[in-house]
Design a protein that fits this description.
- The chain is α+β, with helices and mostly antiparallel strands.
- The chain contains 38 helices and 22 strands.
- The protein has a six-stranded mixed sheet with strand order 12-16-17-15-14-13. The chain has a five-stranded mixed sheet with strand order 4-6-7-9-8, covered by helices on one side.
- About 15% of the residues have low confidence.
Length: about 1000
Amino acid sequence: MAAGNKTTPEQVAGQLDRLAEALVLASPDDDASLVEIGEGLKQVSKQLRKKRTRKSKSVTRIVKRLEEARTKDEAERQAALDEAGLAVTALREFLVDGRPEQEVVFPGEHDADAPADSAVVAAPTVPDEPEPMPVEAAVSEEQRPAAPQPPAAPKPRRFALPAHIDERIFGDFLERQPGVLEDLESLTLELEKAPDTEKYNTLRRLIHTLKGESGMLGLDGIQRLCHRLEDRLAPESVAQMVDLLLGAKDWLGRMFAFYAGRGDEPEPVEAMIAKVEAFRPQAVCAPASAAPAPPQPAVPAPPLAAAPLASSPAPTTAAEVQPTGAVRPAAASAPPASDAAPVEAAPAEPEVVPVEGDPELLKEFISEAREHLDASDNHLLSLESDPRNDEALNAVFRAFHTIKGVAGFLELHDIQKLSHEAENVLDRARKNTLVLEGAAMDVTFEAADMLKKMVQQVADALAAGSGMKREKGMPALIERIKAVQEGRAVAAPPPVAAPGQKLGEILVAQGAISPDKVDEALKKQSAAAADGEGPLLGTILVEEGAASVKDVAHALRAQKAAAASPANAPTGQTGVTVKETIKVDADRLDRLVDMIGELVIAEAMVSQSRDIRQLNTTELNRHLAQLDKITRELQEIGTSLRMVPIRSTFQKMARLARDLSKKFNKPVEFVMAGEDTELDKSVVEKIGDPLVHMVRNALDHGLEATAEERRKAGKPETGRVELRAFHRGGNIWIELEDDGRGLDRDVLLAKGREKGLVREGENLSDEEIYKLIFAPGFSTAKQVTDVSGRGVGMDVVRRNIEALRGQVEIRSTKGRGTVFSIRLPLTLAIIDGMVVRVGRERYIIPTLSVVMSIRPEKKDISTVLNKGEMLQLQGKLLPFFRMGELFQVEGASRDATQALVVIVEDNGRRAGILCDELLGQQQIVIKSLGEALRGIDGLAGGAIMPDGTVGLILDVAGLVRLAHSGAKNGIPEEPSAGERRPAPEPKTETGTTADTMADARAGLRSELAAQTA
């Protein structure tokens, strides 16, 4: 064989891509589609014969079935197309991906004559079994076994993306999947608790849609897995499939993460498919032939599914013979009526059809379809002027193709069908079998106009919660489109334009537009031309809604003395539709929010400037007030842009609770409330770990160990754990409540004394005792498990919540249960703080931590041995900080009776902070101090104040820990008369706290100088 006649793998892949595309476009009632696909399979089967494999017989059988189907009913045609889709998938695995021959299953190989074929084929492949690429091994050279040396080579190809995949569509697909998988998990867990027809149908539609989308994109592994799940799913057995569905969800999550470049390649899909195929409902012991029945309740399985299963006794055989519908998801889901001939089917069709797709997907479809159709208008005008403009032709083709595909997935069958018919015209123009002019251009314009109306009808139906009205003119339009394809359409000649007549004059003469509209458009064209190259007059008229695309096209055609347009052409939809949503890169959004924060600082600095204050005019003050209002609104908008629902985090907790319930053999009812509560994106990302430890603790230690123990306590055998979120007082609250044993005050107190956390005779409140569980290494568990009991988890909870500037509260009743309440700020970018002055420096104390402020008397302050100065308040002694001495601030007040003490609290523990003056409460934009200054006790961040000075944000949790840790405030035990020795400075990794404070201020001042330079 000459080298030049050898078909390359790339050419084979191209042939299969074209076949896959043809299958997507195919309609069961279209004989031409069946013929085209059959011819394509014949061409590819030649490659199988070259490999000397009898796999070609399987393809020949499918080609024969396609030919026979042309004389059969629509169900048989659909079954033949489904089988062809499975064959294309198998051909790709064998000829392109390099899968071993014995692992690739073609439709029909498990029929009665299959064993003989398999036996014949097996012989030549035995010597090449070690080869990961037996297709190349068939070339027969002995050095070939060494060529595929890296055994891992086939693995990445197993999940390789198709060569011609649309990256934008694929990116959108991946972006949606985390939400899809969350819904899948949520619905599965809910159906495990109780049957629900609506939820079951939603779950089934979700899997069906994922199957269709992955099939369109060529993600065969995902498509096959979803197809197997869909076949096995049934209302009566879904509760038994929970583990299977959750396992599939986990595999899909790893698969999508791999495609997105955020994880390793998962295990082969065949292992997951084998688990699905091995599943048999416990309550049903019917033979294999009964297996196809379950798919009927929601979305019917392809007709071919039943027969092969009936003849397949082994589960492994059944796994491979299920048709996947890999490349025909849209057509497979369409009801037969939608594909019937227009003339016969129209009378029987309902006037209103339901719009039942996912509302979010429908909104996205409406937005994208409008964008595609709007863009097509300009491209069609270009084609009207130049029918050979391949770039414009391909753009319009892609627009119709995309609308058709997505409409099919959403079961908008009328839109799908019209798009498909119009796309056929464009495809013939691409193949140079039809010139896009005259009648062909007319029907394309009409199709675009009608699609606009239909998309608007979908939007109206979605808004009203009703069905979508059918377009009465669609059957007649489809008939005209088919007439164009068959060469039967003849366009009437248009009125001929006078020589030299301009476009606007032609439109006015045809009555398509008024002279005033033309004048307005000309003025806009002239104004735009003054700034550069202006748009064409026809484009302006269309964008302004003054004329339809078709009217402009007819005028251009008349201007060129070309073919004519039909009379009474529809005007189409006018106006420019505003987009409902846009997608923004997360980094750009974060940058926008950061810049809004800088704007807030700059606005405050301008407003507080001495020069500005000195002017003090009414007009200036009014402008400054308006600027402040706008800045605050921007700040609120910027904050809201980062807000996301906590649903995804809660959903993970539901899954965790279920898994732990099974692990501990404890029946648990896990209830969620407030999943739609919104938090800052960064808070949602970081709250997961604390909640994991809290849920583990609740199920392992909170709930009783056995059902018997709960019965004795007068409780139901099933424990209850509730996770809820809500807004209160400008904060987000997350509560975890269980109905278990509750916290034992005496046991906790004894353990605290044992560990030296509580002194003998020290009187603690219940809340203080409960919070002992947050101490590192604290645990009352008698037995350590792989889940909890080491005293680490709750310490992690406390530290992580503090890092989020939050607080944890505990309420518990012995024998009744426990409630953990987490209070969090809405955002980490802005803080409400009390500004205080110490000497010449300013500090910000988070308002959430402030209890009160007092002016102490001399008798309230005392010095305790080894504890330093203490403040007596309401009968208790509190640790007492002199900020000026702790941080070595020059000019700080030394007389406590002439200063103020701010009482702060963290986790039920209080301390007093001595400062010179309270300057007021402000919203502060937090500035990071950088990696070198992290981990400083007493310091959480910095801020640039409105007057341009630098303020440091106090870490109240760190100060309180320091106050209650031994060398508490560093104040000497008893100074000599008239003497006050400076406090020993707390150390940090970067030096003393005073040194670090100076470094922090210097860094912020440098940043301020850079911003104002």
